[in-house]
Predict the 3D structure of the following.
Amino acid sequence: MNARGTVVGFYKCPVSTHYEAFRWSADGGFETLVRPPGVTSAVATDINDNGVIVGAMSLFGVDPAISLAYAVVGHVTYFVITGIIGIIGFWQQGESLGEVYNQLLRRGVVKEV
């Protein structure tokens, strides 16, 4: 739920095995979100204060929970790999995050809190 009181979520369609994403607000009521062409299931998991909805969609009948799990694993893997590459880069240059932060402070790019 966001600060405006809008709630998002999903439900299992009673006549099929697919999931449908929805949005609910006091002003607009309950609304099933329209799926793009080719999408067989959709889940909404969060909404920000600007009304942007986060979730997952599945193509080809793949379970949305599995799709979301793959997306999370992919993002975590990307984060870990780029972190390792960054650490290797700092090590090869003889730098540390603390030294880079101090350089940014001296240049005035970052202000100490």
In short: The longest strand covers residues 39-47. Residues 12 and 108 are 53 Å apart (CA to CA).
